[in-house]
Amino acid sequence: MTVLKTSMRNFFAHKGRMALSAVAVLLSVAFVCGTLVFTDTMNTTFDKLFAVTSSDVTVSPKEAKADDTPQNGRPESLPASTLESVEKANGVKAAEGAVSSMNVTVVNSDNKNMGSTTGAPTIAGNWTKNELRSMEITSGHAPRGPTEVMVDADTADKHGLKLGDELRTISVTGDFTAKIAGIATFKVTNPGAAVVYFDTATAQRELLGATGRFTQIYVTAASGVADAQLKQNVAQALDGTHKVQTAKETADENREGVGEFMNVIKYAMLGFAGIAFLVGIFLIINTFSMLVAQRTREIGLMRAIGSSRKQVNRSVLVEALLLGFVGSVLGVGAGVGIAIGLMKLMSMAGMNLSTDDLTVKVTTPVAGLVLGVLVTVVAAYMPARRAGKVSPMAALRDAGTPADGRAGRVRGLIGLVLTGAGAAALYVAGTADKASEGAGMLGIGVVLTLIGFVVIGPLLAGGVVRVISAVLLRAFGPVGRMAERNALRNPRRTGATGAALMIGLALVACLSVVGSSMVASATSELDKSVGADYIVQSSNEAQRIVPQAEKAMEQSPGLHHVTRYKELEATLTSPDGKTDDSGITATDPSYADDLRRTMTAGKQSAVYGKDTMSVGSDYAEEHGVQVGDTIKVAFKRGETAELKVAAITDDSTALDQGARYTSIETMRKYVPADQVPQSSMLLATAKDGQEAEAYAALKKSLDDYPQYQVRDQTDYKEELKNQIGQLLNMVYGLLALAIIVAVLGVVNTLALSVVERTREIGLMRAIGLSRRQLRRMIRMESVVIALFGALLGLGLGMGWGATAQKLLALEGLNVLDIPWPTITGVFIASAFVGLFAALIPAFRAGRMNVLNAIATE
Predict the structure, then answer these.
(1) Membrane-spanning residues where (predicted)?
(2) Taking CA 741 as the corner, what is the angle to CA 740 and CA 744, rounded to the nearest 5 degrees?
(3) What percent of the chain has pLDDT over 90?
């Protein structure tokens, strides 16, 4: 009880000094809890949607998948006779045929795409009774003929659509227009998909290209018949030739696809929260180390009157427990606020998430509290242990905490060993023959060098701070020299404070090098290998190019040729008997000019002969394939062919690495006409001297198809740069949390340092140091510490990035590009971070009363 009272008294006596550490814990816990609440809420939203839209039993083609669009653009379908068989099964109350396709684009009268901007699909289908489970018609009526369409209310609101407006639907069978006859509102939250409905006959004709066929059959159970029993009855009626699922199984299948995407978001955000926790550990260690040092005499008195080492140790840990608990409780509440903020941001971006579905599981606050308290107590253990070692007589003489030179030497040796081991691991990673083999060593090297730099930080502080001071501070005379000495006074503290900033900046530097190298490598590869002038692709990678758009492009004036690029599902059997399901690509002969692939054997032009193909060098090496060998290719929804290997392409490239090519003519020989895939990409080359005219004409010819992007090589490079830049900016934004925590650490260190040096500051003021000079001294000390952390972090990060690029080179990204403007900008920004962090401590130091400061014990 005495220990608890002492801890409570000390905690509240230093509550101002504890505040910044509590904020660090709060931010880290808030990010963890916010991530969990946000992802749980998204899962709840999708779960409700999938649960309510699933009929008791759903029948679909055997090979159909919830998130899959066949290569020919037409969804797998069932004949009307299947519906008749289902209706006769025992336990069936009702059955209805449904048509659904996600391979569509819907545009308004201004030719603007009505689809989601967040990647959610546009879904077109027929209006069925099953839709009433999740939607209700709130305006107009359901479509009654080929000239009518119904849209969901969210899409109508987003794009200002109203009854009578005309929409054009672009599908694989052609374009058709209809006027909005009705608007239906979701009863549950729609995460962002755009949905349009037609009458059944129109949906069959325009989406499937055939009448009397359905993509699913929705079955309703008779009273008292369980879903499992109904599934069994329907399966028996269909002789097991179809996929039959209960409502739960359908929802689970839909949820599985979304779950993979959600897990990526969840674990990525939790990873950044972990980095913030790691940075916060340094802040907490520094805070408790300084508080212990400032209470040396008090601890000595406690020991002198009978307190044991364990009691002193326990007293400090209880303070940490209180700090962790308060910060974590506030963090849990802030996490819910962050989750709501993220939901609002997603809604602004086009993904609708309702706060009505806000999901706070019991495990979320528990995880936040446990994690926050545990991290705080672990971080405070070393200072607490050091406090317990204070001898009563040394403390009463105000000798401070024991300085252990041997411990410093051991620490330095451990740091050197870890850093050396990490550097060795990075070297091994950089010299690996395969990226998969080097990735593990890269991870080990990153962890070991990071820990090594943290451990060796106090040793590095002396030399690095002196160099920085010689460059920046000497010009400020005595004030600059005093700032340098203050930064060097306690190398362990300076090292820990700088290390907090080092972690975030090391990741920034590493990702900057990797991102810049990827852009430079891809640009170099484009310049070297791509002969095509223009590239046409869908803005949605899952969507292919419809035949009418392809025809419009081929008829565009000024083009020398257009090359089709079709990806096919196929199983390849190599001469060694091993199978591979990664497919094959069919192209026109002009592809050899549009993408100049390097051959390790054979000629690229030979690929376009009769029953010939190429393989990649990695595949050839793995399976012992040589030019002249025969590979068995089983085309999905087609026949099995035996194709002769006419060329082996070099896989040391980032473009089409590992691709296997055959000609479109060969593909047509073995794949039925109605199963020929849509082109996933079109390449085009202008006639000599007509590049500008052809580019303008090509864009105009595809005006009616806003889902496709026409880019020349300059556009493509810029798009690539922007995509990587957007990804990096998002990562930098998440890393900003760790950097904010690091800044709080600098603020806290300086604030406690000012308190620690109160008497010294008073004496300096008494002998003539002005307030302005005092504030400048503290600001300079902060800048030096920040730049120390920046130098270590940027140097470490560039080393990581250079090693990562060596691995990327094995995947064809051969150019190492150091983004010096970014690195320089981050370094300069670190100086401003130091200035900002010193504002409050410097202001408080300048306001000290000189006489009171001198009289301080």
Answers:
(1) 267-293, 316-342, 362-384, 412-430, 442-473, 494-514, 730-755, 782-802, 822-843
(2) 90
(3) 35
485-536 tens-digit pLDDT: 888 888 887 887 888 888 888 888 998 999 899 888 888 888 888 889 999 9
Residues 6+ apart with CB under 8 A from 429: 438, 439, 441, 442, 445, 803, 806, 807
Domain boundaries, the chain: 1-56+248-402, 62-241, 457-530+714-857, 544-706
The 10 Å Cβ neighbour count of residue 381 is: 16
Q: Phi and psi dihedrals of 334, rounded to 5?
A: -65, -30
Model's pTM, two decimal places? Answer: 0.81
Please give, one letter per residue, the 3-state secondary structure of 324-337. Answer: HHHHHHHHHHHHHH
Counting every residue written for the chain, the total comes to 857
**Residue 514: closest CA among 88, 800, 116, 706:** 800
* Contact criterion met (CB below 8 Å) for 133 and 251: no
Tell me how far CA of residue 223 lies from CA of 85, 261, 644, in angstroms. Answer: 20, 38, 60
3-state secondary structure string across 363-382: HHHHHHHHHHHHHHHHHHHH
From the list 802, 794, 792, the residue with the least C-alpha distance to 824 is 794
Query: What contacts 428, CB < 8 A, 6 or more positions away?
Result: 438, 441, 445
Residue 621, C-beta contacts closer than 8 angstroms, at least 6 positions apart: none
Give the Cα separation of 241 and 621 in Å (integer): 40
3-state secondary structure of 353: coil
What's the pLDDT score for residue 400? 45
Task: Please report the pLDDT score of residue 95 as a whole number.
Answer: 93
Q: Is residue 172 helix, strand or coil? A: coil
Q: Is residue 387 a contact partner of residue 292, using CB atoms and an 8 Å limit?
A: yes
Helices 820-837, 491-529: crossing angle, 10 deg rounding: 150
In 687-780, where do the E strands start and end?
Answer: 708-712
Q: Which amino acid is at 479?
A: V
Catalogue the E-assigned strands of 465-618: 534-538, 559-568, 570-573, 579-580, 584-587, 599-602, 612-616
Tens of pLDDT, residue by residue over 395-417, are 555 444 444 555 567 777 888 89
Instruction: Say if residue 724 is exposed, middle or buried (CB neighbours under 10 Å; 0-12, 13-18, 19+).
Output: middle
| 572, 632 contact by CB (below 8 A) | yes
Answer whether 656's CB lies under 8 Å from 529's CB: no
Contacts of 132 (CB under 8 A, 6+ apart): none
| Chain position carrying tokens 């500008």 | 692
- The average confidence (pLDDT) of the chain is 85
Q: Which of 225, 139, 224 is nearest to 183 (CA)?
A: 139
Q: Helices then strands (H, E): number in the chain?
A: 26, 26
Question: Among candidates 197, 34, 76, which has minimal Cα distance to 129?
Answer: 197
Please list, in sequence order, all residues whose beta carbon lies within 8 angstroms of the beta carbon of residue 453, skipping any fewer than 6 positions away. Answer: 415, 419, 460, 499, 502, 792, 796
Q: Per the structure block, which two tokens stand in for 493?
A: 């503290």
Tens-place pLDDT, residues 599-656: 999 988 889 989 999 999 999 999 999 999 999 999 988 999 999 999 999 988 878 8
Ramachandran region of residue 73, left (φ > 0), alpha (ψ -120 to 50) or beta?
Answer: left
Q: What is the mean pLDDT of residues 152-177?
A: 93
**DSSP class of 156:** H
| Strand-pair partners of 113 | 107
- Residues near 603 by Cβ (< 8 Å), separated by ≥ 6? 646, 647
Question: Exposed (0-12), middle (13-18) or buried (19+): which is 488, by Cβ within 10 Å?
Answer: middle
Report, in this order, helix, strand and coil percent for the chain, each rounded to 5. 60, 15, 25
C-alpha 221/C-alpha 32 separation (Å) is 43
Residue 532 near residue 563, CB atoms below 8 Å:
yes
Q: Measure the CA–CA gap between 215 and 219, rounded to whole angstroms.
A: 13
pLDDT at 699: 92
3-state secondary structure 245-258: EEHHHHHHHHHHHH
